[in-house]
User: Which sequence fits this backbone?
């Protein structure tokens, strides 16, 4: 089975600023969970109201690319990041809530991805047959040129379903430049829920500067 990554990307957070600019990109606020133990992720659901467009971003062509993404992955070493499977781009009305679902289809074994805007299904995709996700994570990521100062925002109503109970899964969650009350389970570790993960403000500049919006 070929390793792969399935994620939903939005192309357009307490403490540390973003990671230093390196290899043409910069990572900002993030969360990471996994790998699972003797189980795999069967479904992950979550929501977000995208933040405002960043200020002070690079305006000359070519422009930088800012992605606010969450994904699942079967290889926790990041080796399969080049094999991404994205849902199709779409316009997002200002202030709208987006609801996401990534799930393993039990009939096809493919990864099904769905996106709703204000309750209406607007995007879907199925791929990566046979994949058994072990990692669930998300990042702010800036590529090629400065993406500016990104306001704080939150991923909310996060629920991760596992194929079997994994009582340690909640201990695998880690945060960078983010805050959360953490995951809880009410069924012995098969289903995990997080009310919200708050991504702090990010400064996504090629020169690693800190610039505020006025």
Assistant:
């Amino acid at each position: 089975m070929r390793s792969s990554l399935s994620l939903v990307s939005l192309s357009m957070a307490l403490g540390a600023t973003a990671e230093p600019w390196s290899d043409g990109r910069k990572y900002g606020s993030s969360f990471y969970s996994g790998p699972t133990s003797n189980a795999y992720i069967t479904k992950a659901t979550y929501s977000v109201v995208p933040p405002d467009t960043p200020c002070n971003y690079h305006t000359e062509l070519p422009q930088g690319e800012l992605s606010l993404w969450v994904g699942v992955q079967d290889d926790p070493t990041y080796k399969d990041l080049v094999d991404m499977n994205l849902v199709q781009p779409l316009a997002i009305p200002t202030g709208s809530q987006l609801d996401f679902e990534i799930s393993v289809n039990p009939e096809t074994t493919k990864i099904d991805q769905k996106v709703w805007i204000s309750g209406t299904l607007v995007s879907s995709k199925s791929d990566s047959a046979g994949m058994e996700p072990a990692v669930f994570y998300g990042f702010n990521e800036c590529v090629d040129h400065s993406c500016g100062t990104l306001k704080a925002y939150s991923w909310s109503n996060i629920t991760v379903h596992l194929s079997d109970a994994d009582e340690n899964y909640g201990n695998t969650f880690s945060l960078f430049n983010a805050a959360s009350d953490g995951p809880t389970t009410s069924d012995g570790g098969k289903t995990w829920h997080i009310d919200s993960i708050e991504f702090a403000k990010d400064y996504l500049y090629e020169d690693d500067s800190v610039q505020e919006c006025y």
